[in-house]
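Appendix B, Record 12. Input sequence as logged:
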Amino acid sequence: QVQLVESGGGLVQPGSSLRLSCAASGFTLDNSAIGWFRQAPGKEREGVSCISGSDGSTYYVDAVKGRFTISRDNAKNTVYLQINSLKPEDTAVYYCAAEVLTLDCRVSYYSAEVYDYWGQGTQVTVSS
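Logged structural output:
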């Protein structure tokens, strides 16, 4: 059974950092593309990053380049999203998603319809 479990969210001050985790089970990371999404209150879910299963290539939307870093630990079957210099506009529920048995991130990796499985999300709130 495929399962994704996010953790690491919380209430933080602007300028701080967080590392979100996405623990996967029921499949292995090296044959799946994993994406991170976020959904702010009253807004649509938006894709922010993806990491390929075959070679670990990473992709970011322009809005988060330079502040977000996606990585993975195959031994722990876990994907991470490091977020630095947090801003109030980063406040959202963050989700990870998997496209299983697809080695690489698609060109449309930022589109939710690409992914087969989703986690339950972890809340990130940035406020002073």
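The radius of gyration is 13 Å.
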